[in-house]
Amino acid sequence: MVLAQLGGSISRALQQMGNATVIDEKVLNECLNEITRALLQSDVQFKLVRDMQTNIKKIVNLNDLAVGHNKRRIIQQAIFNELCSILDPGKSSFAPKKGKPSVIMFVGLQGSGKTTTCTKYAFHYQKKGWKPALVCADTFRAGAFDQLKQNATKAKIPFYGSYMESDPVKIAVEGVDRFKQENCDLIIVDTSGRHKQEASLFEEMRQVSEATKPDLVIFVMDSSIGQAAFDQAEAFKQSVSVGAVIITKMDGHAKGGGALSAGIVLNVVPVQAVDIVLKSGLNLSL
After folding, report:
1. Torsions phi, psi of 136, nearest 5?
2. Domain Signal recognition particle SRP54 helical bundle: where (predicted)?
3. pTM for this prediction
4. DSSP readout, 12-33?
5. Domains delineated in the chain
6. Minimal CA–CA distance to 176: which of 224, 142, 209?
7. What are 150-159's pLDDT values in tens digits?
């Protein structure tokens, strides 16, 4: 996986620094350059990487360290703290409560695996004792309701959608209201996939959000799109209040850093990688 490879590269850079006989500016720069190279190869945005490197150098001033200080540990801690701060927006993550209805709205790009991820997310919580339900508010993509219906049926999760109604806002509201009446405590609304150029679909997404008042909006991102993720995230941020990111397709691409950049620009709680967080055991050929 991309994140495992990136973590391995950073660990090796730190290990090489730790094995150095003398810790000086040259060793520090070599370590930072290796980490920078690993982040850029994973498609983390250049500005974010540059700022990280600058901040570490401001914190670690080897010339000012008194004799006896553990330079290796100070450098390692500074790098660790800076990497963590990149992904930590300082917000607590949303936590649904059993017995209390929570509405989760999924948004994302076309082809990101959003509809499949909705079912995996629902199944993940179903196994933990929640009563989830799925609402298909995607009236733009042909076959969207069929896909959600098939997935939900296999996972034995109640679902709502319509072949006749073309208004996604109406479908979303009706579905959410129905499942609240049925005492579902995790109502997941799937919306139409879109790109930043599609103004009408972004307006539709905003209307669905205003009508359903979701407790959490999750942005589903395909890790393979690289640094394009940054621009797409900016576009979504302007329309809805995204609170979390799920990264899909992490096992087949070396550009997961672009999706990490998206999480940063959205300033959301820790980026969730669907292959890590949602190991649901869903052997449903979704």
Report:
1. -95, 105
2. 2-87
3. 0.77
4. HHHHHHHH-SS--HHHHHHHHH
5. 2-87 (1.20.120.140), 102-277 (3.40.50.300)
6. 209
7. 999 999 999 9
